[in-house]
Amino acid sequence: MTLRPFGAISRRGVLKLALGAGGVVLGGAGGVLALRGSAPPVEGLAVLSAHEYRTMAALAAAAFPDGTLPQGSPSLDLARAFDTYLADEPEWAQEEAKQALLLLELGPLVFERRLVTFSHLSPAERIAHFEAWARSGSELRRQVATGFRKFLCLLFYDQPAAWTLLGYPGPMISGGAP
Fold first, then answer.
1. Is residue 33 assigned to a domain?
2. For residue 95, how many other CB atoms are within 10 A of its CB?
3. What's the burial of 145, exposed, middle or buried (CB within 10 Å: 0-12/13-18/19+)?
4. Which of 161, 129, 141 is nearest to 62 (CA)?
5. pLDDT value at position 84?
6. Under 8 Å between Cβ of 18 and 106
7. 9, 103 Cβ separation under 8 angstroms
8. Of 101, 95, 59, 103, whose CA–CA distance to 78 is shortest?
9. How many domains does the chain have?
10. Under 8 Å CB-to-CB from 102, ≥6 apart: which residues?
11. Given this model, what pLDDT does residue 174 score?
12. CA distance linking residue 145 with residue 6, whole number of Å
């Protein structure tokens, strides 16, 4: 038996929460989908949909806002790096990541009873919303926040553009065996 941290709630369960929270006010599933809106197409994704990519990009921007990298550094597409990582993961891990992204996207609607999704919050509201998840009384929300925070840090600090922030010169390349 494989233990999965997000196995307690299915994609269908997340949608039921969203419909329960916003369905009456918005007129059912169509209202929730209208709130979510459309996402611009993204070329070359292996696992994530355009909506999931948009949610992850919004989260990455909240975790590492403009000005994090030194002036002139290339921008980091952490959402694409997340997609690339997921491509090599088992299907159950991909599905759990997608469930967590959907829960985060619908979080303002489900948990705060706001008629907005995560991707449509202002940058400051995204940061506040995600920080609230890290301190939440809900174990599921804390797990999602912790998992995404750790993974985004792993992706961020794996980029050579971020190494200068740490004073790390990069890996030493050996010319041969010692």
1. yes
2. 18
3. buried
4. 129
5. 95
6. yes
7. yes
8. 59
9. 1
10. 11, 14, 15, 52, 55
11. 58
12. 12
pLDDT at 121: 95
- Asked if residues 117 and 105 have their Cβ atoms less than 8 Å apart, the reply is yes
Q: Characterize 61-73 residue by residue with b for buried, 16 or more Cβ atoms within 10 angstroms of its Cβ, and e for exposed.
A: bbbbeeeebeeee
- Judge whether 18 and 104 are in contact, CB under 8 Å: no
Instruction: Check: CB of residue 50 under 8 Å from CB of residue 42.
Output: yes
Token output for 71: 């002036």
The two three-digit tokens of residue 81, written as one number = 């790096």
Compute mean pLDDT per 10 residues along the chain, 178 residues long, and list them.
Answer: 50 51 49 69 94 94 73 74 95 94 92 90 93 92 93 87 82 62
Residue 81 lies in a domain: yes
Per-residue pLDDT, 42 = 92
Q: What is the pTM of this model?
A: 0.76
Owning domain of residue 135: 11-67+75-160
